[in-house]
């Protein structure tokens, strides 16, 4: 479970280094959408429009907070995403539906490749599962603001009630951005993990104290590297580089 998150996010990072080819083909998940027809042609836009360069995704703001609604084959969760590029850190605080607070997963990633995955004690239910922490060290840092560079434009589609431009990157992610405001609305991983952006607060920064991993992350000097993930990311990183 912990490493699944690592897997998803760190893979995007390895993809973001260039728009080149090289992502190994993965068995298509049922939820992957069929490529969109050229909506410009279908809707009869004028020729100037049709011949213009395709739109490109807006780079992520250097700091923002977002609440994400996640649906993974029917299992629902909420993520607080704190993206903080200038400070080289990214935080996913993941709550599964109707679970106790001691099962909230904190996925704290640093740009030096260190990630901490931990839970915190639930002070209201002190007898519940003891808190735990795992760390991992990878070759790549956090997502860069321009990680969507090189994505292929697929056209426009309505999603969640918003008219969106849609891009696909390396059969890995489908990304939907509001045509008018340029805010991300939705993205979908090839695994079927479906993300809906509920809030998008540009410039919001989580206070420094909240970025401190708990002491038990440092007590057991257990620098764990998931060799499967590391090898995979490394391989792609090299191919793209
Ligand atoms: C979650 O996704 C499944 C398909 O995987 C869908 O059937 C279901 O309606 C979705 N649930 C919500 C709350 O969006
Ligand atoms: C990366 O940075 C974090 C936060 O400052 C730190 O806890 C961690 O030890 C660093 N990792 C390495 C490999 O230096």
Description:
- This protein has about 240 residues and is α+β, with helices and mostly antiparallel strands.
- It starts with a helix and ends with a helix.
- Helix 1 runs parallel beside helix 5 (about 225-240).
- It has a 12-stranded mixed sheet, covered by helices on one side.
- It is about 15% helix and about 35% strand.
- The protein has 5 helices and 12 strands.
- The chain is globular.
- It has helices spanning about 1-15, 40, 45-50, 215-220, 225-240, and strands at about 65-70, 75-85, 90-95, 105-110, 115-120, 135, 150-160, 160-170, 175-180, 185-190, 195-200, 225.
- It has one domain (about 1-15, about 60-240): outer membrane lipoprotein receptor (LolB), chain A (Clam), CATH 2.50.20.10.
- The structure holds 2-acetamido-2-deoxy-beta-D-glucopyranose (NAG) (2 copies).
- One 2-acetamido-2-deoxy-beta-D-glucopyranose (NAG) binds near residues 71, 73, 74 and 76.
Tell me the layout of helices and strands.
Blueprint (H helix, E strand, L loop, with lengths): L1 H14 L23 H4 L4 H5 L11 E10 L2 E10 L4 E8 L8 E6 L3 E5 L14 E5 L14 E8 L2 E8 L3 E6 L5 E6 L4 E9 L13 H4 L3 E2 L2 H14 L1
Parallel strand pairs: 6-12
Antiparallel strand pairs: 1-2, 1-11, 2-3, 3-4, 4-5, 5-6, 7-8, 8-9, 9-10, 10-11
The protein binds 2-acetamido-2-deoxy-beta-D-glucopyranose (2 copies).
């Amino acid at each position: 479970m912990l490493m699944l998150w690592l897997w998803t996010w760190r893979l995007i990072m390895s993809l973001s280094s260039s728009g080149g080819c090289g992502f190994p083909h993965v068995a298509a998940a049922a939820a992957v959408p069929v490529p969109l027809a050229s909506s410009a042609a279908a809707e009869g836009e004028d020729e100037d429009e049709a011949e213009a360069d395709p739109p490109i995704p807006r780079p992520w703001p250097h700091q923002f907070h977002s609440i994400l609604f996640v649906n993974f084959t029917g299992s629902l969760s909420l993520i607080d995403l704190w993206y903080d590029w200038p400070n080289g850190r990214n935080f996913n605080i993941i709550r599964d539906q109707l679970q106790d607070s001691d099962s909230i997963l904190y996925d704290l990633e640093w740009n030096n490749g260190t990630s901490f995955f931990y839970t915190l004690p639930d002070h209201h239910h002190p007898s519940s599962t003891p808190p735990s922490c795992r760390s991992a060290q990878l070759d790549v840092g956090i997502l860069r603001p321009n990680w969507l560079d090189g994505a292929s434009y697929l056209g426009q589609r309505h999603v969640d009630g918003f008219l969106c431009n849609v891009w696909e990157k390396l059969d890995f992610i489908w990304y939907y951005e509001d045509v008018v405001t340029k805010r991300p609305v939705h993205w979908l991983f090839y695994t079927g993990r479906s993300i809906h952006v509920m809030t998008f607060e540009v410039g919001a920064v989580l206070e420094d104290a909240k970025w401190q991993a708990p002491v038990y992350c440092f007590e057991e000097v257990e620098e764990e590297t998931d060799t499967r993930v590391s090898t995979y990311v490394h391989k792609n990183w090299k191919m793209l580089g």
